[in-house]
Amino acid sequence: MHAPTKRIAAASTQPQRRALREPLWVRVLIRIASLSFLGIFLLLPLVTVFYEALREGFGAYLASFRDAAAWSAIKLTLLAAGISLPLNLVFGLAAAWAIAKFEFWGKNFLITLIDLPFAISPVISGLVFVLLFGAQGWLGPWMSAHDFKVIFAVPGIVLATVFVTFPFVARELIPLMQEQGTEEEQAALSLGANGWQTFWYVTLPNVRWALLYGVILSNARAMGEFGAVAVVSGSIRGKTNTIPLHVEVLYNEYHFVAAFAVASLLALLALVTLVIKTLLERKIQQQMANSTSDFDAEVSNVAVKSPVNAAVPAPHVSLAVWTRGFDFESAVPT
Amino acid sequence: MSLEVQHVSKTFGNYQALRDVNLKIEDGELITLLGPSGSGKTTLLRIMAGLEEPDRNPDTKILFHGEDVATQGVGERQVGFVFQHYALFRHMSVLENVAFGLKVRPRAERPSKSEIHERAMKLLKLVQLDGFAGRYPVQLSGGQRQRVALARALAIEPKVLLLDEPFGALDAKVRQGLRDWLRRLHDEIHVTTVLVTHDQEEALEVADRVVVMNKATVEQVGSPEEVFHHPSSEFVMDFLGRTNVFHARIANGQAWLNDMPLEMPAGMSGKTNAAHIYVRPHELDIERIASGQPALPASVARINPAGAIAKIGLVGTDGAEIQVDLPLERFETLRLKLGETVYVSPRKMRVFAPEPEYAI
Questions:
Q1: A63 part of a folded domain
Q2: Residues paired with residue B68 on neighbouring β-strands, in sequence order
Q3: Is residue A9 part of a domain?
Q4: Taking each helix axis from N to C terminus, what angle separates B142-155 and B172-189, rounded to the nearest 10 degrees?
Q5: For residue A46, which of A321, A244, A250 has the smallest C-alpha distance?
Q6: What is the pLDDT of residues A122-140, one digit of tens each?
Q7: To 10 degrees, the CA torsion angle through B324, B329, B333, B335?
Q8: Burial label, B264 (beta-carbon count in 10 A; 0-12, 13-18, 19+)
Q9: Are the Cβ atoms of B75 and A193 closer than 8 angstroms?
Q10: Which residue in A50, A124, B39, B144 could disulfide with B140, CB within 3.0 to 4.6 Å?
């Protein structure tokens, strides 16, 4: 009895909404299509990783981590990420600051340079390092004369990781910093602050969430990077294997449970990254909304849009890579 | 603190923003830089502040109290700069914003924490925002933000206060209120103040003296009364309020406006054969019947009595529009009708020789 009245009331209060709605069957079809796409390409692989890892029980899962080689791979991955992250943070911040706040000759070239790691295949970037530092490379003879190894050693892995993860921080910061402009900095300078105080009290707090966002994405990529690291590492078991490389070795040796157990670490990392990323995106959107001086709807719409547009390839892309067969092809960033 | 700029020029690439500008501002004055956009007023203000560098020229000087500060950076000049879009530090509370200038001082000159707090609170009281100390800029209205920006600029005890279109982003009502408040504040604290605006009403209302700028140069400097009633150029006349322009002929030492003979204004040479005559709308009178006095016939095209005065739009015999402002009482006694022919006579006029045009 009540239902029809209600419906009429709803229809009369929101006539516009009704007019803008697609027919029911279209809505249902679109929803089913997108959900099944997400399920097959994202959720299913993720579930598979954990399913395969736990196939022989929790004991077998844990046993996979007792292996010395697995531990060494984890430690090396943490080391590579631990070195490349601070470097990316400092250089990414410096590059974004220079690009967003100053006009200088060669600025466009610098932007292109920052994008380079996104544009070229990680395998190629790995090869470049081999050509530079390898035994037959340009600097190889000099380096071996000074007893310093880069290729097939830890420095090479760190170098490759830094290279492929460099754009994340800078790319995340540049649009936000450009949006914020330089007026606050000018105000700080006019109030007597020196350059360092201006940076520390004004510029940095205004980008702190975006900076953390960039670091999180950078970290996900650093730990999950396969292609570039594979070329320079030489996959020496227990010595130059990172987690992704170790997974491949185990898989090729038919240690499926161990391979998936180690892979589940990366999957977990991906999930954690996604959660933090979502939280940070919310923070950044708030900050962008704050950055507009008025409550102008149009302005804040633009502001809300930009961090999403500016977002670098999200980690779920890499997630698909981790959960598939770790072939070189799929390691190419999209 | 007096402020003086001498021979200041500024070019941005091919664009000349300022051309050899000279200006002296007395201690404790409130000056407005008035001009259309692109006239160079903001550039001049930013050069005074040290946010922009003038073109290199040995004659260029920026003097604060007679001392050349051209080589000093913006921080050293101790100027309070207020930005059009406030430029408040968005992640700091209102109190932290105001305290910033004191907090970043070198240790030796920095007041104690409690003193900084006390002084910031005092300033917030001055701008009537002492109840808002803990708020963040996003939680304030435009007018409140601008007052915070002003308090923040005053916190460093500036030698001069420089305001760049401070009320430009606010709505008319708030703008009027803040303008009056700024004038009262200035009368209270007497800090030398330069305010940039493109709003002639604002400039005339708030300033001790008005600097009218156009095309990278200063057109006229004078009191509001002076620039309004005795404009030195057609531009100043035209920019400061509404005007009617009539094109007059000069023949045999006699000026003619259509068939109406005019007194030859002093200073006009007989060489020119044309003159531009400027009359403000309130300086014209309307008669319904020709009185025999020299007057221009025109027909009534628009009538708008909504306001303190009645705005009448007339069309002259040559098709040009003539704007007339009548006091309401006068409007009521006249009982004008749309389309009727009336006779317009100026009570006061200003005559300018047109700028010479050169044949190419």
A1: no
A2: B63
A3: no
A4: 20
A5: A321
A6: 899 889 888 888 878 788 7
A7: 50
A8: middle
A9: yes
A10: B144
- Best of A190, A194, A291, A295 to disrupt the B interface (most B CBs within 10 Å) is A190
Number of residue pairs across A and B with CB atoms under 8 Å?
77
Residue B193 forms beta bridges with which residues?
Answer: B30, B161
Least confident segment among A272-276, B69-73, B268-272: B268-272
CB contact under 8 A, A201 and B89: yes
* Segments forming the whole domain that contains residue A300: 293-334
- Statement: residue B174 has pLDDT above 80: yes
Closest-CA distance of chain B to residue A284, Å:
13
Q: Give percent helix, percent strand, percent coil of chain A, each to the nearest 5.
A: 80, 0, 20
The SS3 of residue A75 is helix
Chain A neighbours among B 44-73 (CB < 8 Å)? 49-51, 73
Asked whether residue A108 is domain-assigned, the answer is yes
Predicted confidence at residue A293, as pLDDT, reads 41
Are A234 and A313 contained in the same domain?
A: no
Residues A216 and A242 in one domain: yes
- pLDDT of A305 > 80? The answer is no
- Look over chain B and give the mean of its residue pLDDT values, rounded to a whole number: 89
Which chain A residues have a beta carbon less than 8 Å from that of B80?
Answer: 190
Q: With a cut of 90, say whether residue A280 has pLDDT above it.
A: no
Report the distance separating Cα A26 and Cα A236, nearest Å.
54
| A145, A277: one domain | yes
Task: Pick the range with the lowest mean pLDDT from A32-36, A122-126, A329-333.
Answer: A329-333
Task: State the ipTM, two decimals.
Answer: 0.84
Q: Cβ of B101 under 8 Å from any chain A Cβ?
A: yes
Tokens of A299: 């302005």
Residue A7 lies in a domain: no
The structural domain count of chain A equals 2
Per-residue pLDDT, B358: 47
Residue of B nearest to A290 (CA): B138
A interface mutation test: which of B84, B90, B160 has the most A CBs within 10 A?
B90
Q: Tell me, what DSSP letter sits at residue B136?
A: -
What does the pLDDT read at residue A282? 87
Same domain, A280 and A318: no
Task: Looking at the structure, tell me whether residues A318 and A184 fall in a common domain.
Answer: no
Q: Cα separation of A133 and A231, whole Å?
A: 12
Q: What is the mean pLDDT of residues A170-185?
A: 92
Interface of B with A in 155-184 (CB under 8 A): 155-156, 169
Average pLDDT (A9-32) is 73
Q: Based on the domain organization, do A126 and A236 belong to the same domain?
A: yes
Q: Would you call A189 and B169 a contact, using CB atoms and an 8 Å cutoff?
A: no
**Subunit contact B75:A184, Cβ cutoff 8 A:** no
Q: Which of A191, A193, A205 sits opposite B91 (nearest CB)?
A: A205
* In a shared domain, residues A147 and A257: yes
A72/A194 same-domain check = yes
Verify whether the Cβ–Cβ distance A192 to B156 is below 8 Å: yes
Q: The CATH number of the domain where A138 resides is what?
A: 1.10.3720.10
Residue A204 near chain B (CB below 8 Å): no
